[in-house]
Structures
1.
Amino acid sequence: MQNHEIDYFIHGEEMQLVEIELDPQETAIAEAGSFMYMDDGIQMETIFGDGSAQSSSSGFMGKLWGAGKRLLTGESLFMTAFTHTGLGKARVAFASPYPGKIIPIDLSAYGSKIICQKDSFLCAAKGVSVGIEFQRKLGTGLFGGEGFIMQKLEGDGMAFCHAGGHIMKRTLQPGETLRVDTGCIVAYTQTIDYDIKFVGGIKNSIFGGEGLFFATLQGPGEVWLQTLPISRLASRILSYGSVGGRKEEGGILGGLGNLLDGDGM
């Protein structure tokens, strides 16, 4: 194997953490801000890029370009490496940023490459390359929304993604098509054909409330879906915090409810 071999344990139900067990000189990499705790003997180091062989062999300009592309996915230029420098075994843990599930993915079982949503990567064994995946089709690029710029995880080690709510894994047969809200896609294998389709129909487009486009995923391959995209959660929270509150209760009753709650004072 090119990547470090690691053992792991996932704890919790809705606010999960992944605990990675490292042998001496083994390393795990993680996005900034996901660290929770580590045993004595583990050394933390901030690195430029992802520390993979692909990144290391590309020279400074290659590292700069690779790290710069990460800015397009909303990530930092830097990642954090946790290396076990002591004896025996030691553990380091990373926590999920919001309610949901952590998905362990053995890249060697999926052709050494997985494509995932730009904010879903949590951590991985050292050697896994974290890059950027552009959708090549014009329609997907123009109307894909959250699916336009995605991350790609390459290597033969373990990687961990995080998603909101409950996670469903679907196996699509050759030619089988699944239509999905773009925000509900967590990850899919490289054999999946990803495209964007217009919802169609005037009433659906104007009054449907589901957006003008949805994603189509055509097999063969594996697809991971989430029930609660963070964008959907954030928009709902913002709508409750907007001026007027209690919109669903009507103007008079809503205002009365706000007054009774103390919101109208």
2.
Amino acid sequence: MSTSTARRVGPAAAGKACGVNQTATFQRTNGTFVAQVHGLELSAGIDKDMVEILDQALATHGVLFFRNQQGLNDDSQQAMIQQFGPPVVTALKEIASDHPHFYDIGNVDPEGKPIAEDSARGMYMRANELWHTDGSQNQPPIRLTALHARVLPPVPPPTEYADMRAAWDALPPSRQRELEGLVVEHSIYWSREKMGMSLNSFSAETLAERKPVLHPLVRTHPRTGNKSLYLASHASHVIGWPIEKGRALVEELTAHATQPQYVYSHQWQVGDLVMWDDTWTMHRATPYNEAHPRKLRWCAVREINPV
């Protein structure tokens, strides 16, 4: 593991935010990506200098996690995330929370009642067990996500993250040339169909607002210039290819990108906040069927322009 505490933005970005007198130290915890952030109490607020430092660190490490952030509430979590871009409006009626920019990820509803596995909300939660990139079914898509652990069971199920940049770098140059330029359709309905949902499972508002969108299969990060695969369970097929051939390619590349050497498993603690760059990471929940409540508060910001 490597640690950096330097006042700069770059491959080991860290620094001091002048407005709140806090210093961030980044400790790499996985082989190719993921860093733990030390020294920040997010509920105290971060200024624009620290926002820039964290943004660069996300471009460098892909996934950042902050321990012991129990002081965060809805207001301070919202104040933090909206400094990184336009906050996502959580329009999906099937899993809406009591906040316009948050989803509750867990096994209980906003009233604390257990979620039935065969309900629309329950199937949405189970769909999180598929490898996915948040918001790839939208245009513009989601850029950064933050997830805060509010309530956890005694043995919390981990969340897994995949490094799509390392997976791309490992492909032979000839294969990379074949993939560049391909365009993929992403759809919320395709990913939910895998869970047994049909169009009848969705509200009229969702059907009207969530049309399929197109994204490149290979993305170039605007900060680093690094290329990565851009995949998700929402990725349906390749434009201009027979549907089954395109779906086979998506499955092949997803299997490649989620090999153990590209995956980090986050072991949750109460108060953890995990942020990740959706440009070049995928993630998935792991199964949890216990009765003990589990509740994580989700929020995100989207890209400014279509991708």
3.
Amino acid sequence: MELLFNLTLNGLATGMLIFLLAAGLTLIFGLMDVLNFAHGGLFAWGAYSGIWIYSTTGSFLIGIIGAILTGFILGIITEKWIIQPVYGNHVQQILITLGLMLVLSEMLKVIWGPNQLTANTPEYLSGSWEIGNIIIIKYRVFIIVVGLLVFAGVQFLLKKTKIGLVVRAGVMNKEMVQALGINIKKVFMFVFMIGSGMAALGGVLFGPYSGVIHAGMGMEFAILAFIVVVIGGMGNFKGSVMAAILVGLSGSFMAYYVPELSLAVNMLLMAVVLIVKPQGLFGGKG
């Protein structure tokens, strides 16, 4: 029972970290029809900037805020100077964002060096609670709570606010929205900024979770994020959280029971989903 609970908790925490990255991809693709393969680079930059600020100031909260602001800034720069010239052309988007991904990874090495950096868990989030024979690690619970709050917040933003209404209207008919006097470019930049901030948040939370961060982590998690987006359904925000949890749980249980398949299980899971339901578990037809 204790083992089952711990594996589940670990899988949920991993799933929420992947969700924060995949949700940004889902937003950007679902609302803007942009394939951003540099999204993992924003995840890595969030980790490095946030952990550096945390280690400098001694405040994990300030580190989180700094990581999110880094994501916002990089998101604005990426959308304005990299994405805008290739709107509507998926092939060019893939090529240019893959190039940006490599640049972002190499810049991390230039600024912080090629070696791994240690990321310590804040004292107030370290340790665990013990309930009977069950041990609950505090930091994993923290990650799960943050992931759920982000999901609820983005859902509220899109469904219940004026900016969310404008975003959804701009996706359906951007010419009509522009005719009403709304600058659709600024709206899309806002969406890209939010998606990038979520990726950076996932990065800084991943640091204490793993204990170390490295420049190649962006590419590793970007692959997982795209698997989640495909499984959940391209552009389906609710699908991304369900798929991320599924991927996190499958990885956690496989790593314990069948370690040889732990790296391949997510690819196998995606292949099965595509065979059974090509549009993804929660994706619409077409």
4.
Amino acid sequence: MSYEKRADYGVAFLFPPALEDWIAADHPARFIREFVDVLDLEQLGFRKREAEEGRPNYAADLLVKVWLYGYCSEIRSVRKLERACRDSVALIWLTGMHEPDHNTLWRFWRDNKKGIRKLFVEAVRVAARANIVGAVLQAVDGTKIQAQSSGRSGLEKAELERLLEQIEKSFEQSGASEMEEEEGYRLPAEMEDRRELQERIKEALTEMEEIDREQIHPGEPEARLMKCGRGFEFGYNAQAVTDEASGLIVAADVVNEESDNNQLLPMIEQAQENVGRVAELTVADGGYSSGEGLAAAEKLGHEVLVNLGRQHLAPEHEFHASHFSYDEGRDCCVCPREEELKFERVKRNRRKRYAVRVYRCQSFKECPVRWQCSKDQRGRTIEITPYDGAFRRQREKQAQADNQAALRKRMTIAEPAFGQIKHCFGFRRWTVRGLEGVKTQWSLVATAFDLRKLHKHWVAGRLSLDTG
């Protein structure tokens, strides 16, 4: 008797197998089907094609299921998704044995970017209704992801200016500028190529001036040169707010700003809108330590803790700027020795949207510690921004032991989501171009991340998708 199992390709079924029995009751495909079936896709903005002529089109809900299951299974290529619809039992079941091709899948993506981004919001709201999202402690963080376009094709402003200068000199030397004006004269082929190159360079330089950047990628002008991994590449800055209790991403966005400075309040407000309530406390790393962001969050009553870094905390000596107080009533600063620093001037910086008030010590010549306080021969100065109060109150918050403990949790809340997306999902580079495209892709990645977590709650019976 043989104890080996072999395939019997001659098996015949008395009754044909039902499609519903092809996958297990707890399979992720079933969860995705239930999730999509309770959504009003038309209300979310998905296009509905109605035509009496031509072949029947694929329904929006079917293609949404394909895209969601693909991203949950680390399949992001439209051609691989097309093959999976023929080869994967789960996708064959999910599509009802239909086989949408890669062009159909891509056109659906192209035409429904806004609707696809709203799928993420719906996933978060499903979790919020089931009380899976804690909304007690949340962490906001960002990660740089390389653009689809090759970094080798990027253009440097200084290099383009040098090349433009060389081309113009070559025209002067050859007298092409004067000869071109003569009737009937035609530039040699190589000169015509240079003229065309000259125009393209001027266009690129004009575009750099408009966006105030020193680099640009001709194939993806919205991408920015930023530190992606070990080196600098053209990329985008992906943002996420992660909930401590559930581990879910509750807000997601992408910007092409190299810094996180301006993202604190927008991300908090997006999380509030998605979940339905603001978190009791939001923590962030030093990249979000913008005075404008702290003041705006404080004004709206949001409790935030942002790692201020060594420049604001843990002063190295007793005359650190943090030991100088500002007396708003007298409009002066007071040093640790109770000496006054009087207002001197208003300082403006073109990179900052606000003015800075400068205060200078008047009694520095008689001060016994003048050289310990400052090496400036004209005396110590202190700069007061409109947001110094926000920084001071933030330092006071972080002096409390419980707030210090909460701030230390930031890494364990935010970093695991990025680690899983990059390592487990294998998502380390955008596969689409343009800011709108990467925003859509990041929303789909975040949706897949959340659905994989919510699937476990659904299997355990802690989450119901029945809206009836």
